[in-house]
Amino acid sequence: MIPTQSMISRQQRPGVRRLPPKNKRAATLIAFLLIPLSGLITDIYIPSMPHMALELHQPEAAVQLTLSLFLVSYGLAQFVTGSLIDSYGRFRLTLVSLAVFIVSNIVIIFTKQIEWIYAMRIVQGITTGFIVVAKRAFFVDVYEGEERRHYLSLMSIVWSSAPVIAPFIGGYLQQYFNWQANFCVLAVYGLLMLVLEWTFSGETVPVYRNFNWKALLQDYRFMMRSRVFAYGLLICGLCYGTTMIFGLAGAFIIEHKMHYSSVVAGYGALVMGVAWMCGGFLGKASLNKAFLPKLRRSNAAQLLATLLMIVTAVWVYNLYTLLFFAFLIHVCVGFIFNNYFAYCLGRFPQMAGLASGLSGGANFIVTAVTSYTVVGILRPQSQPVLGYGYLIMGGIAFLVLQLLLKKEPEQV
């Protein structure tokens, strides 16, 4: 790819500590530990959301908004953070973001005002945007060729570990402590990562790029000219938004309508995380398969499972059927996301930070808008209505994959 006008050939800047070659493996491990941060922030307190609504004397929608505000701010931040980390480097911005992230969790722990929680969730979205975009770009900075493809695909699987671990932990934290305990865990995790990042990591940006809005918009236009890349941003957002529908509504259905405990709600979210991870493993195993055909097959399976989820509820509907059909759907969207997101991240290797920011930003904006809108309109309180939400998301993805993307991508 031809470098754009915003690129400058400066390999080093005074006072910046480069990543020592001997620390490459340690820095890679740290990157993998930080990649799931966005998932931890969204999923760890899902079992606590009904209890937050009661303790803060707020309606369900007000507490659900704390999740959507994080997703929106996280998404919007990434449109700029990608360019900023290409211009000023990854290392220092990651350290500052981790420090601010720790403080934001402390504020949430000690406040009873929903407005302060809203503000801190926005702050967390912005800081997490810097951290995760920098670590996604790390793999493009440090690795090349097949090794890069391997790590980008593996990165998606590692990222999917958060929905597995986080709600499981969050369910027990709510059962034995309170909802604030979730944010205590996040603060401690952030502190540990700050120490490790400072000790073992360093700057990895290969070529610094001047930051200016005109060049930023020019680079975005350059990337969006790729039809498969542009529609991929929408597809990835729809896939992750499908999982967020369960995240927003699942705990309320399980705890309020089915009258199970927060631990059971945590296990339910854990099952969805396992499904997403299974989809990721299947996606990694199919890297060498034809790109669009495998995505279309997975989308067809997703729609079939969704229709069965709605229809069979007429005869049988309980916790197990709810989780079974949702599991199948989440495997399918996890498969699509793993393949398409890895493609988007590696599509423009000389603008790794910018591509990471645009990919992540668009993904989470689409995720936040679609999931919160669908849940707000349908207000899922049962298996069939949850299925209708899944059907809307899968139907839009079907239109994109079948009608708008008619040709194989130039590069995969």
Walk me through this protein's architecture.
77% of the residues lie in helices and 0% in strands. The protein has one domain: MFS general substrate transporter like domains (Growth Hormone, Chain: A, Up-down Bundle). It is built from 16 helices and no strands. The radius of gyration is 21 Å and the shape is globular. The model is unreliable at 1-11 (pLDDT under 50). With 412 residues, it is an all-alpha fold. It has helices at residues 24-34, 37-43, 49-55, 60-88, 91-110, 114-142, 145-159, 162-176, 180-200, 213-224, 227-257, 262-285, 291-311, 319-346, 352-378, 383-404. Helix 1 (24-34) runs antiparallel to helix 9 (180-200). It holds the Pfam family MFS_1. One of its GO terms (cellular component) is plasma membrane. One of its GO terms (biological process) is xenobiotic detoxification by transmembrane export across the plasma membrane. Residues 27-412 form the Major facilitator superfamily (MFS) profile domain. It is found in: Membrane.
Short recap of the structure:
Residues 27-412 form the Major facilitator superfamily (MFS) profile domain. This protein is mainly alpha-helical.
CATH superfamily: MFS general substrate transporter like domains
Instruction: Report how far the terminal alpha carbons are from each other.
Output: 15 Å
Percent in strands:
under 5%
Question: What does the average pLDDT come to?
Answer: 85
**SSE string, helix = H, strand = E?**
HHHHHHHHHHHHHHHH
Give the count of structural domains: 1
Percentage of residues in helical conformation: over 70%
The largest sheet is:
none
CATH architecture: Up-down Bundle
The best one-word shape is: globular
Question: Could you name the ranges where pLDDT drops below 50 across 5 or more consecutive residues?
Answer: 1-11
Q: For the record, what CATH class applies?
A: Mainly Alpha
CATH topology: Growth Hormone, Chain: A
> Helical stretch count?
16
Structural class: mainly alpha
Radius of gyration, in angstroms, nearest whole number: 21 Å
The overall strand count is 0
